[in-house]
Design brief:
heterodimer; A: mainly alpha; globular; B: two-stranded antiparallel ribbon; transmembrane helix (chain B); cell membrane (chain B); ABC_transp_permease (chain B); L-phenylalanine transmembrane transporter activity (chain B); L-valine transmembrane transporter activity (chain B)
Chain lengths: 380, 320
């Protein structure tokens, strides 16, 4: 691929201190690609062990002195990671800018809350139902809007997110602005009860994240993943080469939505209480920021981004009031210093450095509504 | 239901025109920046918020106890507009310098620019909530701040059962005047030609001796100033504001810009008015709590059938 050559030509020294992280990561990735099977399994085992001992109080004392570390691991960190992996399918893999991702999180959460409290369904049934419902709403949102590109899609999805939130707020059947209380916890697994102790939820979350990561990696390496990459790089070329772009974009939306719904289900099982304000636009923006900050399209990067964005505000609770202020400032600063993210996907990074035209690529990544393609499409 | 429609149609129309004019003014900023940079300037809603506060603080300094009349009122109106336009225009230029220029110089993607915009938007909101508002009006920033009334709510004339008040007329006339001025600037002046050239083809514009940096700065300045005027009209009409005021209004204004055809100044005017009207008419049937849902649904439906908006031409096509 041309991508790799471009990446290697780049001199890391020129790009400031942060690039050392990326450079080290590149070497790690090279090692990983040529690692033996037993070496890979060692890493997997290390990751599992790491995940198991992560909630240890000793770690917690350093990581979050102000609040209960295990709780923080479930929400926000775990939830953000789950959501970011889901959004990465849509934004990072298929290149569709979605600003209303929180809607699917809400749909998953409300399914668990509503069917659990009103009809007394089993928790797992409500989660599965929530995931299905989220997928369906992904298709419902995607079918009419996926002909749009770039910013238009972004703003429509933003609108959708707000529609879902306002609808939840104004619908008395699901509690209106008061929300739903007494959401049932998951039933016991292997004798472990899900009550007030956050630890079981943490392991449930880890299981969900692991599942979603495996799913996402398998997808990325499959035909579907290649089709998404093709659409992301150049939608028209992909269409001309015989990729049914609309179908695949819809699929990306649906799969992203399913993961969002799962996150909502897991969250609601822990939270006991949900209300419309649990799902504001700012959460969509935060998750998108996590994806881009970490390195859109690269799973380890996305997870790192989500971890940092979930964790840093908790770590610096002393600044309680100033957290969002700092968060906003950091976003601006990060984008100025490292617009391709902390651990960028190699292929994407190469793309970003190609650059086109006097205005840079600001405008080259996703064709605007005024490009010839969309106008001809509109004329059809 | 039909009774409601009969009783509320004309008043809703007036209300829709008024709020639509404000949407249209804010939409201009989105549409100009989008036309030139292909960037949704998410923080434009906070530029509008800054405009409302500039007017509010100035108004509080004069502290009128009763509605003004005659020259005093007109003078106050013009003063507030100028102050807000200056504050918002300045803030927009600063925003561009800090949040977008470095990205542009490095050739970052628009996704990065969008994140930067969201970051800047959050930063400005919180800065106002925590620092600026408490300092300016000596009040915890997260509260709503209300403005004294300085334009009397006199009914000038009635159309059917709709009362058209002085403030309604002021908002609409002011918005139209500002629009015409901007239209003139973009179409008749040298700087306007530069803006259109940049929107159409930045590279060619550079070759023809246009300074892109200056053009971008002027674009932000003009767009910000329009948002400032909108902010001062908002203070006169709605009479309160808060650090969060920008979010919903900003999305509506962006919707208006898209509705009219983004990059198209007259489209922004049309989009704003249409959105204001539809949302107020829709509220007759569904109740005002569904206004935002109506606005977004309209957006989706319009984009499905006309992805380039109602007036599907743009700054790019040099018609502005």
């Amino acid at each position: 691929m041309k991508g790799d050559e471009v990446t290697r030509q780049e001199t890391p020294a020129k790009r400031g201190g942060l690039s050392a992280v990326g450079h080290g990561f590149d070497r790690m990735r090279d090692w990983w690609e040529h690692a033996k099977v037993w070496q890979r399994y060692l890493v997997y085992i290390a990751l599992v062990v790491g995940a198991l001992i992560l909630p240890a109080p000793a770690i917690g004392q350093f990581m979050s002195p102000g609040s209960d570390w295990t709780t923080v691991l479930v929400y926000p960190i775990g939830t953000y990671i789950l959501l970011a992996v889901g959004l990465n399918v849509v934004v990072g893999q298929a290149g569709l800018l979605d600003l209303g991702f929180v809607a699917f999180f809400a749909i998953g959460g409300y399914s668990v809350a509503y069917y659990g409290t009103h009809f007394g369904w089993n928790y797992w049934a409500t989660v599965v139902f929530g995931i299905a419902l989220a997928a369906v709403s992904g298709v419902i949102l995607g079918a009419p809007t996926l002909r749009l590109r770039g910013d238009y899609l972004a703003i429509v999805t933003l609108g959708f997110g707000e529609i879902v939130r306002i609808t939840a707020n104004n619908t008395d059947e699901i509690g209106g602005a008061r929300g739903i209380t007494g959401v049932p916890h998951p039933p016991p697994i292997f004798g472990t009860k899900f009550l007030l102790d956050p630890a079981p939820y943490y392991y449930l979350m880890v299981a969900a994240i692991a599942l979603v990561i495996i799913f996402s990696v398998r997808l990325q390496k499959s035909r579907v993943g290649r089709a998404w990459a093709a659409i992301r790089e150049d939608e028209d070329a992909a269409e001309l080469m015989g990729v049914p772009t609309f179908k695949f974009k819809l699929l990306a939306f649906a799969i992203g939505a399913m993961i969002g719904g799962l996150a909502g289900g897991v969250y609601a099982g822990k939270a006991v209480f949900i209300e419309p304000n649990t799902f504001p636009f700012i959460l969509s923006a935060t998750i998108l920021a996590a994806v881009v900050l970490g390195g859109s399209g690269n799973l380890p990067g996305v997870i790192l981004g989500a971890f940092l964005i979930g964790w840093l505000p908790e770590r610096f609770r002393d600044f309680a009031d100033y957290r969002i202020l700092v968060f906003g400032g950091v976003l601006v600063l990060m984008m100025a210093l490292r617009p391709e993210g902390l651990l960028p996907s190699r292929r994407r990074k190469a793309e970003l450095h190609e650059g086109t035209g006097g205005m840079g690529t600001m405008g080259a990544e996703v064709p605007g509504p005024d490009t010839d393609v969309s106008t001809t499409e509109a004329a059809k | 239901m039909l009774d409601d429609l009969y009783n509320q149609f004309l008043p809703s129309t007036v209300g829709g025109l008024v709020i639509g004019s404000i949407y249209a003014l804010v939409a201009l900023g989105y549409t100009m920046v989008y036309g030139v940079l292909r960037l949704i300037n998410f923080a434009h809603s906070e530029i509008f918020m800054i405009g409302t506060f500039a007017s509010l603080v100035t108004l509080l300094a004069f502290a009128p106890t009763a509605p003004l009349a005659g020259f005093a009122m007109v003078g106050m109106l013009v003063l507030l507009m100028l102050v807000s336009a200056a504050a918002s225009g300045g803030a927009a230029v600063l925003l561009e310098t800090v949040a977008y220029r470095p990205l542009r110089k490095r050739g970052a993607t628009r996704l990065a620019a969008l994140i930067s915009a969201i970051g800047a938007s959050l930063f400005l909101q919180e800065l106002f909530a925590l620092v600026v508002i408490p300092w300016l009006i000596d009040k915890p920033g997260r509260n709503q701040a209300s403005a004294p009334r300085y334009v009397a709510r006199d009914v000038l004339f009635k159309i059917g059962n709709a009362e058209v008040r002085l403030d309604h007329v002021i908002v609409i006339i002011a918005a139209v005047l500002v629009m015409i001025t901007l239209d003139r600037v973009v179409n008749k002046t040298r700087i306007g030609r530069g803006i259109r050239a940049t929107a159409q083809d930045p590279e060619a514009a550079v070759l023809m001796g246009v300074s892109i940096d200056n053009i971008v700065r002027v674009t932000f300045l003009l767009g910000g100033a329009m948002a400032g005027v909108a902010g001062s009209l908002y203070i006169m009409e709605i009479e309160n504001t808060s650090y969060l005021i920008g979010f919903v209004l900003g999305i509506k204004a962006f919707t208006a810009a898209v509705l009219g055809g983004i990059g198209n100044l007259r489209g922004a005017l049309l989009g704003g008015i249409v959105l204001g009207l539809i949302e107020n008419w829709g509220a007759i049937f569904l109740g005002s709590e569904w206004k935002d849902v109506i606005a977004f649904t309209v957006l989706v439906v319009v984009l499905m059938f006309r992805p380039t908006g109602i007036l599907g031409e743009s700054l790019q096509k040099a018609r502005a």
